[in-house]
Inverse folding.
């Protein structure tokens, strides 16, 4: 069974790519290795209507949970002929684990007044 579950923060803002009526949302998440060993940066793809929603509501830094399957691709580089490969997660479910950052509106300060 090919199932993967990850929890991490978006390392990039999501990109939405139109694809013949089936939009694709792509982004990377940073998954902490624990014990100050750094993080792994995992590419994520979501398809269809959920992809449009994720593109709308997710931003870099948001904490998410991902459930999906691991995908592996291999190809030969057009220019060099070198073999290339890529692993990515095809998301079935994406859970939003924190609230979006609130946008603060700048307050106008009149001369002689202090801003709080």
């Amino acid at each position: 069974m090919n199932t993967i579950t990850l929890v991490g923060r978006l390392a990039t803002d999501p990109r939405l790519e139109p694809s013949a009526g089936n939009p694709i949302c792509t982004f990377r998440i940073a998954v902490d290795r624990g014990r100050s060993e750094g993080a792994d940066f995992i590419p994520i793809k979501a398809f269809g209507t959920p992809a449009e929603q994720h593109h709308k509501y997710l931003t870099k830094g948001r904490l998410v949970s991902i459930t999906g399957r691991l995908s592996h691709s291999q190809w030969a580089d057009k220019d060099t002929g070198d073999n290339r490969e890529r692993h990515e997660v095809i998301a079935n479910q994406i859970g939003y684990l924190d609230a979006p950052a609130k946008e603060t509106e700048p307050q106008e300060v009149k001369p002689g007044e202090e801003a709080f």
User: Anything to note?
Assistant: The mean pLDDT is 88. The beta strands are 4-10, 15-17, 24-32, 39-47, 63-76, 83-96. The domain at 4-71 is CATH 2.40.50.140 (OB fold (Dihydrolipoamide Acetyltransferase, E2P)).
